[in-house]
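Tokens as discussed.
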């Protein structure tokens, strides 16, 4: 089957996640990069285009020019999807324009800058009939699929307690003042939105908790902090959670936990069993029982559910992780584009809207001295 051609917006020189998307998209040979607007200047965009072997006419100009140019190509030549990997404030304008020009969209999280623009995008997606995927990549780890399958099958019983944390330390100092661009835009409200830490990594944690348990967070009480002097947005937060059906929990997201890397960890406990998973050790899922030793479930093993098995590429014991989880999303989106009846088993607009509601609720609650507020 021929690979699906795509454009990329963002992912220019020195960018972080654009290259991750390109590797992931290429992993299963379902996608082929054909052009893009990779940076805010045409020169830097062409620099990336040249490094990727693209013709200058497929990598020059602004993102608006890039979409207009592509839309004029014949159906055989033109891209079918646009990948958005820019700072947050550009996600929704780019996605709206891409949908209008007839492209499917794969966008990184968070959805955008506000709930209102998220709703505008949701309406545009529904009207377009195009696919919109949001790369909450952690949901596509094989053992997260297993965790979700175990919860759905009732193996944990009714869920009572959910603890999720995302611990980073990279913003423990004033990195943004050194010109480090990932830090600069994440701490700028005009580009990041209403939150730094909760928008950047808190949304991943909340999404993972909801994805595995199948339970929406109904209300929360958040205590956000800005520890680094002069910073405009939060760099740390502790949040109490109440889930639909009565489960309770806590979410800690922080970018000032010195020395921590990407400590995303989920623990879920029901009436009958408990689950523990950590993204820094993603090939092991701990299943705890009340009356016998814990089981260690491992990526790639034959005893896993069909969903978990389909997300692994190599025999057990060969580590799979971050890049492969992204690739699973790309592969599932390709299947959905090729066959409208294929399951849409990847995160989408609803996850994006939940993320925006989560950010809003955290900011509102914290401003009210950690009062309980509804999510959405
Ligand atoms: N899912 C994940 O694990 C994950 C991880 C990191 C980042 N992200 C998300 O990905 C997005 C990008 O983050 P990043 O860390 O790669 O940022 P980055 O600063 O490294 O890269 C952003 C890129 O966007 C380009 N850009 C900016 N304005 C542009 C414009 N007008 N036209 C075209 N390109 C433009 C920049 O030149 C740069 O190349 C953010 O929304 C972030 O939240 C997700």
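Sequence:
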């Amino acid at each position: 089957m021929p690979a699906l051609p795509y454009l990329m917006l963002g992912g220019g020189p020195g960018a972080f996640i654009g290259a991750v998307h390109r590797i992931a998209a290429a992993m299963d040979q379902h996608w082929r990069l054909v052009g893009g607007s990779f940076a805010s200047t045409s020169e830097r965009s062409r620099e990336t285009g040249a490094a990727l072997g693209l013709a200058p006419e497929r990598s020059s100009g602004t993102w608006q020019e890039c979409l207009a140019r592509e839309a004029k190509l014949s159906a055989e030549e033109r891209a079918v999807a646009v990948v958005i990997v820019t700072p947050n404030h550009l996600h929704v304008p780019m996605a709206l324009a891409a949908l209008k020009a007839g492209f499917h969209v794969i966008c990184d999280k968070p959805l955008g800058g506000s709930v209102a623009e998220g709703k505008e995008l949701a309406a545009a997606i529904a009207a377009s009939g195009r696919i919109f995927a949001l790369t909450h990549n952690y949901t596509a780890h094989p053992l997260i699929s297993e965790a979700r399958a175990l919860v759905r099958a009732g193996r944990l019983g009714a869920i009572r307690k959910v603890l999720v944390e995302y611990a980073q330390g990279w913003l423990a100092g004033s990195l943004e003042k050194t010109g480090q661009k990932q830090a600069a835009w994440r701490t700028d409200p005009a580009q990041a939105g209403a939150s730094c830490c909760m928008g950047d990594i808190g949304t991943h944690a909340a999404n993972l908790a909801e994805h595995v348990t199948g339970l929406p967070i109904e209300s929360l009480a958040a205590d956000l902090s800005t520890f680094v002097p002069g910073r405009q947005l939060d760099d740390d937060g502790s949040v109490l959670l109440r889930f639909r059906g009565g489960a309770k929990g806590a979410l800690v997201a922080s970018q000032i936990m010195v020395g921590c890397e990407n400590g995303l960890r989920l623990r879920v406990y029901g009436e009958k069993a408990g689950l523990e998973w950590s993204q820094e050790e993603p090939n092991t899922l701990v299943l705890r029982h009340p009356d016998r030793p814990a089981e260690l479930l491992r990526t790639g093993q034959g005893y896993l559910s069909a969903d978990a098995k389909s997300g692994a590429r190599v025999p057990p014991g060969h580590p799979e992780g971050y890049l492969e989880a992204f690739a699973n999303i790309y592969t599932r989106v390709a299947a959905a584009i090729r066959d409208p009846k294929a399951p849409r088993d990847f995160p989408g607009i609803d996850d994006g809207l939940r993320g925006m509601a989560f950010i809003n609720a955290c900011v509102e609650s914290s401003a009210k001295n950690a009062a309980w507020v509804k999510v959405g």
